[in-house]
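Quick illustration, no need to memorize.
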Amino acid sequence: MTEQITLEEALELVVFHRNDEGTWCVDQVRGTVWGTVWGNVKGSVEGYVGCYVGGSVGGSVKGIVGGTIGGREWNFVETPKEKLGRLIKETGDVDLIEAFNQLENNQ
């Protein structure tokens, strides 16, 4: 027989709450998920997703995307505005940086 987790041990790893409809939901997971999430994550993933995401990401990815999105290789694209700002800041020219920042603030 395999060892079973106790309720107290489980509650140290997972926090629950009731949503507005009265349904129990997982609020926090304090640890690593070594399997599948059959549902949605409506919050943050503070860590690494090391496998397949079979849905959409409706927010920002703060780190690195290594793999494909919709079957296509992911590629960082710098817009012309971002490139201009980066190049100006790389020059270190205080007047150019100040002028660029003024343009940014006036939009």
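The mean pLDDT is 86.
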